[in-house]
From TrEMBL:
<feature type="DNA-binding region" description="OmpR/PhoB-type">
    <location>
        <begin position="1"/>
        <end position="97"/>
    </location>
</feature>
<dbReference type="InterPro" id="IPR005158">
    <property type="entry name" value="BTAD"/>
</dbReference>
<keyword id="KW-0804">Transcription</keyword>
<feature type="domain" description="OmpR/PhoB-type">
    <location>
        <begin position="1"/>
        <end position="97"/>
    </location>
</feature>
<feature type="compositionally biased region" description="Low complexity">
    <location>
        <begin position="285"/>
        <end position="307"/>
    </location>
</feature>
<comment type="similarity">
    <text>Belongs to the AfsR/DnrI/RedD regulatory family.</text>
</comment>
<dbReference type="InterPro" id="IPR036388">
    <property type="entry name" value="WH-like_DNA-bd_sf"/>
</dbReference>
<feature type="region of interest" description="Disordered">
    <location>
        <begin position="273"/>
        <end position="358"/>
    </location>
</feature>
<protein>
    <submittedName>
        <fullName>AfsR/SARP family transcriptional regulator</fullName>
    </submittedName>
</protein>
<feature type="compositionally biased region" description="Polar residues">
    <location>
        <begin position="321"/>
        <end position="334"/>
    </location>
</feature>
<dbReference type="InterPro" id="IPR001867">
    <property type="entry name" value="OmpR/PhoB-type_DNA-bd"/>
</dbReference>
<keyword id="KW-0902">Two-component regulatory system</keyword>
<dbReference type="Pfam" id="PF00486">
    <property type="entry name" value="Trans_reg_C"/>
</dbReference>
<dbReference type="InterPro" id="IPR016032">
    <property type="entry name" value="Sig_transdc_resp-reg_C-effctor"/>
</dbReference>
<dbReference type="InterPro" id="IPR011990">
    <property type="entry name" value="TPR-like_helical_dom_sf"/>
</dbReference>
<feature type="compositionally biased region" description="Pro residues">
    <location>
        <begin position="343"/>
        <end position="352"/>
    </location>
</feature>
<feature type="compositionally biased region" description="Basic and acidic residues">
    <location>
        <begin position="308"/>
        <end position="317"/>
    </location>
</feature>
Amino acid sequence: MSRMRFQLLGLLSITDGEHAAVLQPSKPTNLLAALLIHSGAVVSTDYLLRAVWDTEPPATARAALQSCVLRLRRIFAKYGIANDTIEAVPGGYRMRMDHETLDLVRFRGLVQSAGSARDAETESYVLREALALWQGPVLANVSSHMLHRDEAPRLSEERLRALERLCDIELARGRCREVLTDVWDAARRHPERERFAEQLIEALYRTGRQTEALVEIRAVKERLKEEFGIDPGAPLQRLELAILRGEELDTAPGPGVLPAIEARASTRPAALPGGVARADLPSRAPAETPAQEQAPAVAALPPAASTAHDKAHDPAHDPTSARTADTTPGHTVTSVPSLAPSPASPDAPPNSPRFNAR
């Protein structure tokens, strides 16, 4: 029997490796997302109430939270997931996930493993495997504004750091043409990150596109001046000077290149742990908007297959892809109406779309 696992890096879903049941936006879905983000940690009841309701929770919220937990457990039972996957502990709840049951845990483990790789080729391969786990914007089908505001940017930052590292390695190895598409896409999607612009300019220059590199430098300088009133950082200024002088940049991963990359990597924060000792953010108090809890909608998965589901990832997968409803090739993703919707519920989701595998 295939082992069920959760996917958080994109559409929040439950999968057996071949088919994925996508949860519709709802209060139980918000609850599940909050627990998975802090996998392994005790997540306080107060934090969960704010994540689930977004506004000042109603007087009956604690009882409603217990109802959301029961609804999730019923869904888990439908797919053979143990009832104690969500643990009730003093002060809150906890979900213990590992690299086989949650893609976020696997992503962090791969990034950590890449950092200890003995050579650049291995590190690049492992980073691509980690980045391939991202199937689109994180929390794409989670409606909690609090989670999107406080948690999604932190998770996205982990991905961008891994992508920056990968592009650094590829440039240092002289694979400028191969990485050009990656850095071009990253620089356009994230203009606020100067490092991606530097990588794009370096790749353009090293592939004989000096004029385009200088145009890119001018655009970055103008944007920084107009939006922030600042000049580009020292690395970009040095790169511009080298291009203007027509200096040849070292593309080989020799002694003067990779150690410099390692030095930069050593200054970045360590990968965030699977959770916090206790997730409990300061309380917000906007206008009270009581709402009824609603069960997340999931699609019935076919009977679990007898083969193992955890297939090796393709190292050639494009790490910069950001597809809202894509799945790994060969997988089927479905979504059906809510299991127990309330017709009068103000937050009942519209008819859910059907996502076809590509």
